[in-house]
Design brief:
The chain has 205 residues and is of the alpha+beta class. The protein has three helices and eleven strands, in the order αββααβββββββββ. It is globular. Bound molecules: zinc ion. Zinc ion binds next to loops.
């Protein structure tokens, strides 16, 4: 073995160490490059459902409606224990209706349905919206410009995510439906009820 091979044999150790460091850094960079666009995508879609007509982000999107505000000690006609709700709903319905979750945009089959019929609460069957009040908002969630009956939906001020929005809930079971905004069709009510498809069941005429 030539005498220089011993010296060379030490070199790869250094290179190996640096290479490992480089690989780790490269992995971190890949994560960052993945996380940043994902965050931007999620945030833009989140905002899309909040106020699509605004060019700048408006943090105050409270909407005045004719619905009743939730009362301090509001009681609901349909009452179930948390365990009963978990048994009667699927996991995603439970997360949205009972834990105020939001489904991913453009995932609900109900978004694309324009057949005649009625949209009822997936938690209790309360009739909430008619197909006649539905429109294509392009925001990624089923959208309506009016409720079937003002009394069947109640509202609550929602201050989460650094914004002030108007949450809509089923008046019969208190299930979270989504939010209502004032950027709906101007020739109708001007309102946009942005509803999670999982909160609804569609009953075709
Ligand atoms: Zn309900």
């Amino acid at each position: 073995m030539p005498p220089w091979t011993e010296k060379i044999a030490q070199v790869p150790l250094v290179i190996q160490t640096k290479t490992k460091t480089s690989i780790v850094r490269l992995k971190d960079m890949k994560k960052i490059f993945f996380i940043i666009p994902s965050f931007i995508f999620m945030f833009t879609h989140f905002i899309a459902c909040k106020g699509q007509s605004n060019t700048k982000i408006d943090t105050t999107m409270q909407t005045q409606t004719h619905h009743q505000e939730i009362k301090k000690n509001q009681t609901f006609e349909v009452q179930k224990t948390d365990q009963e709700w978990q048994q009667s709903l699927d996991a995603e319905q439970y997360r949205i209706l009972r834990q105020k979750g939001t489904e991913r945009p453009f995932t609900s089959p109900l978004e694309e349905i324009y057949d005649g019929g009625t949209y009822v609460c997936a938690g209790c069957g309360n009739q909430l919206f008619s197909s006649e009040g539905k429109f294509d908002s392009g925001c990624g969630w089923p959208s309506f410009y009016e409720a079937l009956d003002q009394k069947q939906i109640i509202t609550q001020t929602d201050n989460t995510f650094g914004m002030t929005r108007t949450e809509i809930l089923c008046a019969k079971c208190g299930g979270h439906l989504g939010h209502v905004f004032n950027d709906g069709p101007k020739d109708k009510s001007g309102l946009r009820y942005c509803v999670n498809g999982k909160s609804l069941n569609f009953i075709k005429k």
